[in-house]
Amino acid sequence: MDKNEAGWKQIEELAGERGIQSMKAAEEFSPRLARLAVEFGYGDVYASDALTLKQRSLITLSSLITQGDPGTGLSYHFRAALRIGVTKEEILELINHCTAYAGFPKCINALFIFKEAYETYEEENK
């Protein structure tokens, strides 16, 4: 399986149809950036067996929180984490843990992004 095919498979496993549609929207606007994300981000980095998908998800969330992601990526990855079995409590604890490294402003921002993402996830999965 080539990296493009592996990447699309990872996106589907991680984020389902919503993830596929998000990446297709990115691909329509910037085919090159989408290809890089699919082939490298998902087809290479996420495809390794050294970490579980749940571990990768927690690492990704931690990185996005500490960078102060303004919402789009963080919201996407919060919903993906919930989809693959990371619990609300685990995500809240991750946000709490990040305050020691990223500070309260970034983590409070992440908390409100998570609240919205969680409510959306719950509504879609009733």
UniProtKB/TrEMBL annotation:
A single GO molecular function term of this UniProt record: 4-carboxymuconolactone decarboxylase activity
InterPro entries in the record: 4CMD/NDH-1_regulator, AhpD-like, CMD-like
Keywords tagged on the record: Lyase
Superkingdom of this protein's organism: Bacteria
Organism this protein belongs to: Geomicrobium sediminis
Signal peptide start and end residues: none
Occurrences of domain Carboxymuconolactone decarboxylase-like (ranges): 31-116
Enzyme class: lyase
Taxonomic classification: Bacteria, Bacillati, Bacillota, Bacilli, Bacillales
Record bears the keyword Lyase: yes
Keyword Mitochondrion included in the entry's annotation: no
Protein name per Swiss-Prot or TrEMBL: 4-carboxymuconolactone decarboxylase
Enzyme Commission identifier(s): 4.1.1.44
